[in-house]
Each structure stands twice: as structure tokens, then as C-alpha cells.
Amino acid sequence: MRAKYAIVLLVVITLVGSSCAYAHHSFAATYYIDRTQTIEGNIVEFLYRNPHSYIKVEAPDDKGQKQVWAIEWAGGAQLAEEHVSRDTLKPGDHVIVSGNPARDAASHRIRIQNINRPSDGWKWSGVVR
Questions:
Q1: Of 19, 27, 76, 124, which has fewest CB within 10 angstroms of its CB?
Q2: Bridge partners, residue 99, by sequence
Q3: What is the tens place of the pLDDT at every residue in 47-104?
């Protein structure tokens, strides 16, 4: 009888743990997944890390005021599989970024879909998981 309770407890713990992991990836809670926004500016910082990398880009908002935008990207391990390294982007690089805007417009965040560096034609396009 104890083994039966232990199995039930293990199943419950597994289900609760897996739902928490899935909830972490609910981008719809933070971003408008049905909208796209494009910004153009210069990279201030590239944070190449797990679970998500970020590019900070200084670019104007819809009122023309310079803002530092936090661009959410995939983690370092996933980016490495796509031949993106911590040296791919540098502060000062001029980029054009498109992606899903944050639900809170004041946060100046975007979930990346595309990035283009016009100076040499480098591009990335994909899905952040």
C-alpha cells in the first residue's frame, strides 16, 4: 500500500514540476504574439547566456525618444547551434530588429524574430523557444 502512495506522489510531483517548466515558456503572457514591431539602432550590450540571451539596443520609441530596448533571444546553447556566438554582435553594431512587442509598452522589450546588421549583410531569423 505504501508503494502505491509513493507512486501517486511521484506522479503528482512530476506533473506539477512539468507544468512550472512549461509556464516559463509562455511568451504570450509577456509579449503580443500576434503583433510585430521593428526598431533600428545601435547595440549597447549583448548578453549571451542561458536560459535567454538579450541584446540591448538604443533606438527611438514611437515618439522619437531614444530608449534602450531589451531584445529577448534564445539561450546561448540554442544560439550556438545556429552559429551565433558571443562575438557575433558587438556594442556599436547598427541593427534592425523585428519581433513581438511587450504587452507593457513602457518596458521597451521585444521578443526577437529577425535581426539584420546592414553593414555586412549578416542576418538571423527564427523562433525563440
A1: 19
A2: 37, 112
A3: 999 999 999 999 999 899 999 999 999 999 999 999 999 999 999 999 999 999 999 9
Domain presence at residue 38: yes
CATH number at residue 84: 2.40.50.1010
Task: Reduce the DSSP state of residue 128 to 3 states and report it.
Answer: coil
- What are the strands, taking DSSP E only, across 25-121? 37-47, 54-60, 66-72, 94-101, 109-117
Give the range of the structural domain holding residue 84, as residue numbers without chain letter. 29-125
Q: How many domains does the chain have?
A: 1
Q: Is 93 in contact with 40 (CB distance < 8 Å)?
A: no
Grid cell digits, residue 29: 503572457
